[in-house]
Amino acid sequence: MSTPAATDGAGGGTGQVAARARGLTKAYGTGETAVRALDAVDVDIARGRFTAVMGPSGSGKSTLMHCLAGLDSVSAGQVWLGDTEITGLKDRELTRLRRDRVGFMFQSFNLLPTLTAAENITLPMDIAGRRPDKAWLERVIDTLGLRDRLTHRPAQLSGGQQQRVACARALASRPELIFADEPTGNLDSRAGLEVLGFLREAVDRLDQTVVMVTHDPSAAAHSDLVLFLGDGRIVDALREPTADRVLERMKRFDTLVPEAVAKPDGEG
Ligand SMILES: Nc1ncnc2c1ncn2[C@@H]1O[C@H](COP(=O)(O)OP(=O)(O)OP(=O)(O)O)[C@@H](O)[C@H]1O
């Protein structure tokens, strides 16, 4: 299924595409043990929107994110970040592109314990030898409510605050696209809600583009569009999601599994 970008519906997106894939296929291994993690996926990620990716375990969510972010090579098909085709780029070009144009947030915050919050936020830019845009950085810090935590080290911050620092770090270079892999996975529900609220604000107030992989229907409900993956394909999309509608859609995957198991000869 080809998914139109979330260019209509709620919010004020520009209608442009931040990332795009055509015929994106990723296989692991060869012969009988080969796994087709992604099977000819066509997808458009709308700029200035919050897109969630859901699906059963093993459906290809992380693989899709890694291929779109240039963290993993593809077996076939093409991927673009903005107007740049990233499939076919050399490793060094890809590293630079990721560094300059993509932000990442992971379940584990990956903050350096010896650095302050402020130092952690600007670390990727410091490594790249880039000067942060000061006005932008101030805005990110205020939007995320980190102003009075800047001199604290990670151990002096709560889990939610640490994830907010990780969020600010992803936003600091004003990337074209932010990929978040289960960003609330290690947080209690209140801190998780807070981080989702900040990602939402990053899209609404700072005009950022976010793609988030999640297992949690109420987390997905903060997005503008949920893409559902099943067996390496995009099998459905839900605009302006609510947790209930996402949950309903996810339940249909559960009912499909016993059916497949009930057909040992592999038909259907
Ligand atoms: N490095 C690898 N080598 C072999 N198979 C892999 C590798 N990475 C992923 N796979 C397989 O590809 C398929 C998709 O994996 P992926 O991690 O993208 O799924 P996912 O939807 O993110 O799963 P989960 O929700 O459990 O994290 C799975 O069948 C997985 O076993």
How would you describe what is shown here?
- This is ATP-binding cassette domain-containing protein.
- Residues 19-256 form the ABC transporter domain.
- With 268 residues, this protein is an alpha/beta fold.
- It has a single domain, classed as Rossmann fold.
- The protein is built from 8 helices and 11 strands.
- The strands form 2 sheets. The protein has a 6-stranded mixed beta sheet, with helices on both faces.
- The structure holds adenosine-5'-triphosphate (ATP).
- Adenosine-5'-triphosphate (ATP) binds at residues 28-29, 35, 37, 55, 57-63.
Summarize the SSE layout with pairings:
Elements: E1 2-3, E2 17-28, E3 35-46, E4 50-54, H1 61-68, E5 76-81, E6 84-85, H2 91-101, E7 102-105, H3 117-128, H4 134-143, H5 159-171, E8 177-181, H6 189-204, E9 210-213, H7 217-220, E10 225-230, E11 233-239, H8 243-261
Parallel strand pairs: 1-3, 4-9, 4-10, 7-8, 8-9
Antiparallel strand pairs: 2-3, 2-5, 5-6, 10-11
Helix pairs in contact: 3-5, 5-6
The chain binds adenosine-5'-triphosphate.
Q: Give the ligands present.
A: adenosine-5'-triphosphate
**Order of strands across the main sheet:** 7-8-9-4-10-11
Number of domains: 1
Task: Assign an overall shape.
Answer: globular
Strand count: 11
Which strand-content bin applies to the residues? 15-25%
The fold-level CATH name is Rossmann fold
Oligomerization status of the protein chains: single chain
Quick summary of this structure?
The chain is an alpha/beta fold. The protein is built from 8 helices and 11 strands. The site of adenosine-5'-triphosphate has 12 residues, from strand 3 and helix 1.
